[in-house]
Design brief:
Largest sheet of chain B: 3 strands, mixed
Shape of chain A: globular
Helix content of chain A: over 70%
Strand content of chain A: under 5%
Number of helices of chain A: 14
Structural class of chain A: mainly alpha
Order of helices and strands of chain B: HEHEEHEEHEEHHEHEH
Oligomer: heterodimer
Strand order of the largest sheet of chain B: 8-1-9
Radius of gyration of chain A: 21 Å
Number of strands of chain A: 0
Number of strands of chain B: 9
Helix content of chain B: 40-55%
Structural class of chain B: mainly alpha
Order of helices and strands of chain A: HHHHHHHHHHHHHH
Number of helices of chain B: 8
């Protein structure tokens, strides 16, 4: 089928945002060259005792957790039958797809020989490794998300036949996506099960996989709310009536759900403390840090979410979503970096170099730029006029 | 969306079976099997009470593995001032530990401990590696295959002894580096480089089972010289490298809180959850989907029923009203008809009467006429 490429809007104005984006992209490009010319040692503060830094702790762990909005939203809409969430599905799938794509992109910086990334699946599968499971599930899920997103691209390109075929697979893809998400979200936590001697007992638990999976749910919901507020501010003109009409319902619905799940999460965290009898650690400095994470970044946003849902206060829900997202970042960094190797003296601990941080910022910026391009051109925040009222 | 239930379940089945075959092969579950090491495998017994910290083992290791010369020559013992760990070009290091202050009555000798890969019976690195680059050889050593390594460094996260080192400055072909227990030399029938050179027999190479017996004998023979513990016999499920010490091992830089659970066992539970999730989730999710769908359907049916009911009610009401109206109208009509008939009949009667009257009058009239005529 011959098709004409639709007009692409690539207007780049010299706004402060665009200028900053440009600077970050240039810096990132420079660091990329350094990384692949001088090795990891040239840009990172990693060493033999601290093999994983923020490229794993932030880019991989937080990236995957915060991209959970994809499976949460599509499951709400298609599996749980909450059809009013329909307009939120596409943006959530897009962010999830970009999130996972960025995770894989970031891994190219972190692993020593990125061209061997297909090895675990196609050359020598190390099936006893939880990292294998993460790799396999992320690989499969990236494909699922890609297929789930293609209808938007097909609508944009006017390929209605292929679009129809993909639309018929929606349900199967959604359920497959939830299975894969359950597995790799939990496996990211399970990665650390192998090192009880290195992770602080307050964070180490046999329940780590459960904690990661449960927290990924409210991470995803909070991210949908948070992104929604950003999109409303900057991409309002791209949204159609349905999206605008339904968005408050999505925010309040997810607030309520997130509040419930976070309360449950607090409960199982306490169960984890009790089952390993780790209460005495609460009265140490690490305990204060742990309580800050649990009460300040889970309990507090859960409470604000509850009020927001009760009062139907969208603004309040957005505030809660920011705290909850920060809480997820806080938790994942605590497990992978702060409370990891906690027993070592300060001189042997890891602090990221500025170059590592800029590289992470660069990767996020790449993601935002791509998101802006796609939402500016493809029917994501609005429904394509030809396919309206189909679902 | 046109998805029949049959089609849908078919897809789910395929997805489940696919993921199960792909991901489920390594989950041993929580079995109570215990691996006691390959029978007859080799190990090394390091008796720290005999070590004098001469660093000859470090030198031998460097030569055997063809490493570049160190900045500080091996004869310079000043490096012992600081605690070191293994690194890319140093697969083994000797550390010096000052004796504890409590035992001040005895002669105070520093204690030297050699550090290298302990060659676990069930290695954490091998369990963690997602490309099977690490392998426990049946002879004892844990080997590394750089042709498979992706460089993810999860092995380094997993290793409880902090042994593997990584070539951070190698941009294209970085490797994970660690002691090989000189497997090539063992295969040639030679001793590992460090064992061969040790002037004090602080290192003994042999079958692991024999070494444990030897270590027990030493402890039994010289109870004052050793703490009653063979480090590595059970730590992390057991290691091929074994240690004896005069002081508690935690005082000579060796962790005593590692436990006896092997690394694969720590992750077995999480791994065994994978096939269960793959098997159960489609059922659960399809169930939720079916319930929500059914609810929708029931709600729709109920709505339709309600509509039908209302319609029916309205219809009967309308019908009854209509009937009433009809009745009323018929009645009215009837009354009107009766009235009309009555009126007509009355009129007819009146007419008949009038006619009769007229007739009688007529009859009377001729009579009268005749009367008149008669009168005429």
């Amino acid at each position: 089928m011959a098709f004409k490429l639709p007009p692409v809007s690539l207007k780049i104005e010299a706004t402060p945002g665009n200028i900053i984006t440009g600077i970050i992209l240039i810096l990132g490009f420079g660091l990329t060259v350094m990384r692949f010319y001088g090795g990891l040692g040239a840009v990172t503060n990693l060493d033999d005792t601290n093999p994983w830094g923020i490229w794993i702790g932030f880019d991989l762990l937080c990236g995957v957790a915060l991209a959970a909005g994809g499976y949460v939203t599509s499951a709400s809409c298609y599996v749980f039958g909450l059809k009013r969430y329909h307009s939120a599905v596409r943006p959530a799938i897009l962010t999830a797809f970009l999130g996972y794509a960025l995770v894989v992109f970031a891994l190219h910086y972190d692993v020593g020989r990125p061209w061997r990334l297909p090895y675990p699946i196609f050359v020598s599968p190390g099936t006893s490794s939880l990292l294998f499971e993460v790799g396999l599930c992320v690989f499969l899920y990236l494909n699922v998300l890609f297929i789930e997103f293609t209808p938007a691209a097909f609508e944009w390109l006017g390929l209605s036949k292929i679009r129809g075929i993909v639309m018929k697979m929606t349900m199967a893809l959604t359920i497959f996506g939830v299975i894969l998400s359950t597995l790799h979200q939990s496996s990211l936590g399970a990665l650390f099960l192998i090192s009880p001697s290195k992770l602080h007992p307050l964070w180490y638990s046999g329940y780590l996989p459960v904690y990661f999976f449960i927290s990924s749910m409210f991470a995803g919901m909070s991210m949908v709310i948070f992104e929604g507020s950003l999109a409303h501010r900057y991409l309002h003109d791209k949204m159609d009536e349905t999206h605008l009409k339904e968005s408050d319902g999505v925010v309040l619905g997810f607030s309520k759900a997130a509040s419930f799940i976070m309360m449950g999460y607090l409960g199982i965290k306490v169960i984890g403390l009790a089952i390993d009898n780790n209460w005495h650690y609460l009265f140490t400095g690490w305990g204060a840090w742990f309580l800050l994470e649990l009460l300040g970044f889970v309990g507090l946003p859960a409470f604000i979410y509850a009020i927001a849902a009760r009062d139907k206060n969208v603004k309040l829900a957005r505030i809660a979503s920011v705290i909850a997202v920060l809480g997820i970042v806080f938790n994942r960094l605590n497990i992978s970096i702060v409370a990891f190797n906690w027993h070592l003296p300060a001189a042997q601990r890891y602090m990221p170099s500025w170059m590592e941080i800029v590289t992470s910022v660069f990767i996020v910026t790449v993601g935002i730029t791509v998101y802006r391009f796609i939402t500016a051109n493809m029917p994501v925040l609005y429904e394509h006029p030809d396919y309206k009222h189909e679902h | 969306m046109a998805i029949t239930r049959r089609k849908f379940l078919g897809w789910m089945g395929c997805a489940a079976a696919g993921s199960a075959t792909l991901a489920g092969t390594a989950a041993y579950g929580a079995s109570n099997k215990e691996f006691k090491g390959h029978p007859g495998s080799f190990g090394v017994l390091h008796d720290t009470t005999r070590c004098i910290g001469c660093r000859k083992c470090e030198k031998a290791c460097n030569e055997v593995n063809k490493m570049p010369d160190p900045k500080v020559p091996f004869e310079d013992l000043s490096v012992l001032e600081t605690e070191r760990r293994t690194s890319v070009h140093t697969h083994t290091v000797v550390n010096r530990y000052a004796p504890s202050k409590q035992a001040s009555s005895e002669k105070q000798h520093p204690i030297f401990v050699k550090k290298q890969c302990n060659h676990c019976l069930e290695p954490a690195c091998a369990s963690a590696c997602f490309v099977k680059a690490f392998k426990k050889d049946k002879k004892g050593p844990v080997g590394y295959d750089e042709t498979l390594c992706v460089g993810c460094r999860y092995c380094m996260v997993a290793c409880p002894f902090n042994i593997p080192a990584y070539e951070y400055d190698n941009p294209l072909t970085p490797r994970v580096m660690k002691c090989t227990m000189c497997l090539p030399r063992i295969e040639e029938g030679k001793l590992p480089g460090c064992v061969e050179i040790c002037p004090r027999e602080a290192l003994v190479f042999g079958k692991r089972d024999d070494l444990i017996r030897e270590a027990r004998m030493r402890i039994q023979k010289y109870p004052d010289l050793y703490v009653d513990h063979i480090y590595g016999e059970h730590e992390m499920g057991g290691t091929s490298w074994l240690y004896l010490s005069k002081v508690p091992f935690s005082q000579i830089g060796m962790r005593e809180d590692l436990g006896t659970t092997s690394a694969p066992q720590m992750t077995a539970g999480a791994l065994s959850a994978v096939p269960i999730v793959v098997g159960l989730w489609p059922v659960l999710l399809t169930g939720i989907y079916a319930i929500s769908k059914r609810k929708d359907k029931v709600a729709e049916e109920e709505a339709q029923e309600a509509i039908a009911h209302v319609k029916e009610e309205a219809e009967t009401a309308l019908a009854s009203e209509l009937a009433k109206l009809k009745e009323k109208m018929t009645k009215e009509k009837e009354t009107a008809v009766t009235a009309a008939v009555k009126k007509a009949m009355d009129e007819a009667a009146a007419a008949a009467q009038a006619e009769e009257k007229a007739k009688t009058e007529e009859q009377k009239a001729p009579e009268a006429e005749s009367d008149v005529e008669e009168e005429k």
